[in-house]
Amino acid sequence: MPPEVLPVTTKVPAKVEGAVPVIVAMTVLSAIGDITRFESAKGLVGYAGLGAGVHESGKTHKDKHITKQGRKELRWIMVEAAWRAVRMSPYWKEQYEKYLRRMRKPNQAIVVIARKLLVAVWHVLSKEEADEHASEEDLAYKMLLVSWSLNDNARQGLTYKQYAKYALMKLGVENDITRFVRKDVPRRLASKAEVLARMDELGISP
């Protein structure tokens, strides 16, 4: 896989903040197939059996049963991703707590988060839109995780830190972030200048 083609399985975890690791993205993509089959996020949500499960508008919520039709594995993986998002992301934690206060049932609140995450996945896959709640440091860490998961051939001569920065450049992140802290551990990426120089040596197109 040439590095000039950023894999779609890296785009999902990179752009959906704190929620979808590579293995989840691959599972979602396997269950979805061709994203163009779904003209809207609503269609994908229905396919997963997460549609129209809970009435979300207003201050009072009426319990509805989530639709059980759809791909069971996709519904399951999105619920698992939602729990992970709540643990990892301040934004999704806040969203979960908001719905939990209203619904008073954790399983129903997490279904709402799973549905919102799947909507975000649809936008990433079909429209190349990044999650507005993902910071540059979130994206940087995600791309480090992606880089660690790739073998030497996939990185085409780039180091882990260089490939992570290369991926950020492909995603349009302008800030040349090279240092940040995640999970109380200092992390480092290669600089943009270093990556461009290495790409020139390897004959990789920018």
Measured between the Cα atoms of the first and last residue, the distance is 16 Å
- Overall structural class, as computed from helix and strand content, comes to mainly alpha
Q: What is the domain tally?
A: 2
- Find the count of extended strands (DSSP E, 2+ residues): 2
Q: What's the shape?
A: globular
Give the strand line-up of the largest sheet.
1-2
Radius of gyration: 18 Å
User: What would the average pLDDT be, to the nearest integer?
Assistant: 75
Strand percent estimate: under 5%
State the helical fraction. 55-70%
Order of helices and strands: HHHHHHHHHEEH
Give the helix tally: 10
Describe the structure in your own words.
By secondary structure, the protein is mainly alpha-helical. The chain has helices at 8-15, 22-32, 41-47, 72-88, 90-103, 106-127, 136-149, 152-155, 160-170, 192-202; strands spanning 179-182, 185-188. It has two domains: 8-127, no CATH class; 136-202, no CATH class. The chain has ten helices and two strands, in the order H-H-H-H-H-H-H-H-H-E-E-H. The protein is globular and about 55 Å long.
